[in-house]
Design goal:
heterodimer; A: 11 strands; B: mainly beta; six-stranded mixed beta sheet; five-stranded antiparallel beta sheet; 11 strands; 0% helix; globular
Chain lengths: 113, 111
C-alpha cells in the first residue's frame, strides 16, 4: 500500500548502456514528477506530467525520455548512460499541477561505472 | 536556477533543544514549503505556508514567512533523535508550475 513506489531501488550499470526506472502512484493524483538529486543533495526537477501530458521539461539531455502510459505511472528511460548520470532519481506526485504538496517515492540510486 | 537557500548548511544540537533553520529566496512566490529527508529516503512534506500567511504551526513545527525579506524559518521545538534528517525549503514562483528546492540543512540531534 505504498503511495509512490519506484523500481528498481538500486541500479548499477556500465557507461553507454540504456536503462529504465519505473514509478507508480496509487494516490489518484493527476501530476507526477522526476527529480535528480546529486551527491551534494541538490534536488533538481527534470520533468513533470499532468494527466499524461508533459508540462515541465527542464534543460535535460535528450538521452532522458519520460513516458506516462497513464496518470498513475511515469517512467524514465535513459539512453547511452554517462558517468555524470550517477545520482539518486526521485519520482513524486501531487494532487494537481496547482496543488503543490508533493509525495515522493523512495528513490532509485543509479551508479554508472 | 536555484531559488531557495537554507542556512545553516549543517546544525548539531542536543536532544530537547530547539532547532531553527532559515531559508532565503530570490523572487516573489505563491507559497513556500518545508520538506524532511531522512538518510536514504525520499522527501516528506512537512508544511506549506502561503505568501499571505506569516506564521503556521504543525505539532512541534513552527514556520514563519517574511515576504518583505524573502525569507522563512522552520523551528522544531523539543527536538528528538528522530528529527535527525536534512530539511529543505521549496518555493513556487509566481506564474510557475514547478517548485524549486534549496540545498538543505543537515540537522543532527545529539543524544
Amino acid at each position: 500500500d505504498t503511495a509512490v513506489s519506484q523500481t528498481p531501488k538500486y541500479l548499477v550499470t556500465q557507461m553507454g548502456n540504456d536503462k529504465s526506472i519505473k514509478c507508480e502512484q496509487n494516490l489518484g493524483h493527476d501530476t507526477m514528477y522526476w527529480y535528480k538529486q546529486d551527491s551534494k543533495k541538490f534536488l533538481k526537477i527534470m520533468f513533470s506530467y499532468n494527466n499524461k501530458e508533459l508540462i515541465i521539461n527542464e534543460t535535460v539531455p535528450n538521452r532522458f525520455s519520460p513516458k506516462s502510459p497513464d496518470k498513475a505511472h511515469l517512467n524514465l528511460h535513459i539512453n547511452s548512460l554517462e558517468l555524470g548520470d550517477s545520482a539518486v532519481y526521485f519520482c513524486a506526485s501531487s494532487q494537481s499541477r496547482s496543488y503543490n504538496e508533493q509525495f515522493f517515492g523512495p528513490g532509485t540510486r543509479l551508479t554508472v561505472l | 536556477s536555484q531559488q531557495g537557500e537554507e542556512d545553516p548548511q549543517a546544525l548539531s544540537i542536543q536532544e530537547g533543544e530547539n532547532a531553527t533553520m532559515n531559508c532565503s529566496y530570490k523572487t516573489s512566490i505563491n507559497n513556500l514549503q518545508w520538506y524532511r529527508q531522512n538518510s536514504g529516503r525520499g522527501l516528506v512534506h512537512l508544511i506549506l505556508i502561503r505568501s499571505n500567511e506569516r506564521e503556521k504551526h504543525s505539532g512541534r513545527l513552527r514556520v514563519t514567512l517574511d515576504t518583505s525579506k524573502k525569507s522563512s524559518s522552520l523551528l522544531i521545538t523539543a527536538s528528538r533523535a528522530a528529527d535527525t534528517a536534512s530539511y529543505f525549503c521549496a518555493t513556487e514562483k509566481i506564474g510557475d508550475d514547478k517548485i524549486i528546492f534549496g540545498k538543505g540543512t543537515r540537522l543532527h540531534i545529539l543524544p
